[in-house]
Amino acid sequence: MKPLDNNGHELHSTFSVAGAHPSFEITFESGDGRGRNSQYAAGVAIVLERLSKVDATLTRAQITSDPVMKLVREKGIDPTFEPRAFPFPLLLRGTDSVKLRKALGTAGGRIASDQASGGNNTRKMTLSVTLPSPMRGAADLELTLAHRLAVRSLEMMPELSGVDAALGEWLEALRQGSRPDRGNRLWMSGEMVMLKASPSGKRANAFDVQLGIHSSGKPWSVEINAPGAAADPNGLVNVAADTDGRRFVLRQGRLRPNPDSDGEVEGAKFRTLSGLEPVIVTGAVSKIARDWYVVADIDGSAEEIRRQTGEFVHACARARLLSKGLVLPQPAPPTLASDEKGGVFVKRAKDATPEKEILRRQGEVWLALRRVVEEAGFHLVKLRHDAGYEVDGIILGGPSRILIEIKTSASAADIYEGVGQLVLYSRMLDLSDHRRVLLLPGKPSAALVSAVEAEGLMISTYKVAMNGRSAHVEFSEAFLSLCGMPTAATEPIVSTLTSGVL
């Protein structure tokens, strides 16, 4: 199979996949730089890049050309090789695919070569890799690496009126799931995204939308601003449709500099750091290759539009922070977990039990903690292990890294559970260098505190008080001091609650 590049163009470089999960063999057919697999180097590099995105580990490399295989049979030579700068086993995530491709070509060229400096660096080569869950077959992996499985082709909408109408529907879906925040901001509580919509400075009856993960909005993670024209490749935002007529909000993979990032984040840097994949887009003429990404499917439900938009915003936020050098813990393999939800949910009436509102107490504590952490200039993130383990929070950027487990009661059962979770998560997520804190609504007995601290853990406290539909959360001075945050005259965090349906 020949892979597609990130703009949907087929590369003249043939490869195949064999094996069964979790072990596979990726074979690249040889190239001669002219007619046969003339884009061998580009094909190997892009397949290595995509292997990194599925968290593959490279365990072995062999030259498997017919002449070498004949020497293996007749003389027993060893066809395996290993680049000196990339020892195996090699986790491909975070590895420079171009440098690795060059190193493989150089090292492979020396196998059964008479040339002192190495021979052909575009030989038939087989790489052995292992993949973590989820389980997949060889055919599925081959299509994924060729970029032929997930890539959809979209065509830019040609009329500006249609673009404006689609963007209007998208914004209305976001507003439906939001509550007013300070000023003219809206809080998408389910997606943990702040947004602000303003009239466009380009033209009448259009708007610009700023979206971000910070409790104050700024600095915004990404902007979805009305384009100046339909099918304009020079604008960062547009709308395209698939062959069934479904419409999609699109944005280029380019983030302008702000305090959350190290300069501009674009191109391959955006793809790698965000973890997003571009789509093929036609109908816009440009001499420069553009990478377009789906923000949301406008013809899906309002809930789906909000979910997809939220995922896009968080991916942009992650790309910015990683570009700046913020080191996120890297368990094997992690994904950023969904943020906690605050507010209340409505438990429907059942039999003789009337309908009632229930406070998402843990979510309110988490949201209050995030606001305090951000005001101190730090970061609060969540991580999830692929086995399903999810931490409540990790504070980064302070004097020490802190792993937090939040409980809504100080019962013995909750404390036992919390201690076990902190111990388990620190091991499963490779967070042994983090200080482990169990955050409770009150202090347990001194004997229990001593027993917990003897295990290298700490207990800190918070308070939650209700006033109508507002939750007032206060953290103890000892906890704030431990996190490196100011304690003097700390104001309680107030969150206005909203209703949802369970």
Automatic annotation (TrEMBL):
Q: Which UniProt keywords apply?
A: Plasmid
Q: What is this protein called?
A: DUF91 domain-containing protein
